[in-house]
Specification:
The protein has helices spanning about 1-10, 15-20, 25-40, 50-75, 80-105, 105-115, 125-165, 185-230, 230-235, 245-250, 250-325, 340-350, 365-385, and strands at about 355, 360. By secondary structure, it is mostly helical. Strands 1-2 form a two-stranded antiparallel sheet. Strand 1 and strand 2 (about 360) form a beta hairpin. This is Odorant receptor. Belongs to the insect chemoreceptor superfamily. Heteromeric odorant receptor channel (TC 1.A.69) family.
Amino acid sequence: MGLFHRLWTKSTQCKALEQSSGKLETLFFESVYRVTYFSGWAYLDNSVIYRIYSGILKLSVGFLICCEVWQLISASSSLDSIIENVNVTLMHLIALYRYINMKENKTIYRKLASAMESPYFDTSTPRRKKLVRFWSQRNERFLKLLLGLGSCTLGAWHIYPLVDDIDYNLMISARFPFKYQTPIRFPIFYVIVLIVFNYTSLFVMVNDLIMQAHLMHLLCQYTVLGDCFENIIEDCLREKNKNDERHVIKTEEFKEKFLTRLNDLVEQHKFILNNTTELKKTLSAPMLGQLTASTMLICCVSYQATKWCDEIKLQSENIGNSVYCSGWERGLTATPGVGARLLLVATRARRPLVLTAGGLFDLSLASYTSLVKTSYSAVTVLQRF
């Protein structure tokens, strides 16, 4: 494990770490910078080797996304195939848009990453140092959690085409400008697509990791500032005799010190608010796209599930018609037991099996449509307030 850590540290040493504004930026962003460098999307590194490495990865990822869009436009003949293809394609396109937006605002993100180096950011007490460590460790845990969940999900994507009994199937729905469906070409092409798809998925995760790190970074600053306000008097009394607190507070020296301290905290508050406003502006459009894409994915998945559940209900009802058309009128009902059994099946079919969501409502297209209409109506009402 130590050897892997040393290898990882040495191979992912990047310009973002070398140009770090200080220990606090490195504490929060080191892992993010390293993962971004490994994925090939670091924009500060311009060495020849890395530019070749990054260029190959970016071209491969771009080619894969173009093939997904080509499949979506030209080869999706049914609603099910469109839904199957649009899920992955939409995630990749939104990730690409978020990266472009982030690169256009790289000056702002650079400023946000170095915000803890502000002269007004006070971590002089053990409690505030502990708060910084807490948020940095939490950021690291969530980073590992996101990468772990993403890797597990990718594992399922890789296994599925190997067990679905479809010849020459890939883990994604994409149309390529060449034929790979041969016994010799397919294994090689499958491995290539697997590697490119992994890097594309890592690219999606990198966007989330960067956003998460900046949000945790801001949360830490707000938490530390809150502690500074709560303990402003104690900070000003740090070198004074606290047993004589009432007398010390009334002195002009203390009042001047308190006012200076308060001004510093006000400046830090303004600084954090300005940073939050800038982050809000840069994230507004990408997060709207992310929310829209997530909502569409949820709607598509829900539609697919309710469609098949509704189909089960219809086929269950159809059993009664099938019994009626089974030729019972040709005299077979005179056979003992035949008429009773047919009548029993027809009676059961009159009450078809209906799948439900926790017993609250039926899983059917009618209930799905009703739920969508209700949600839209609720949003419309809330917007009026």
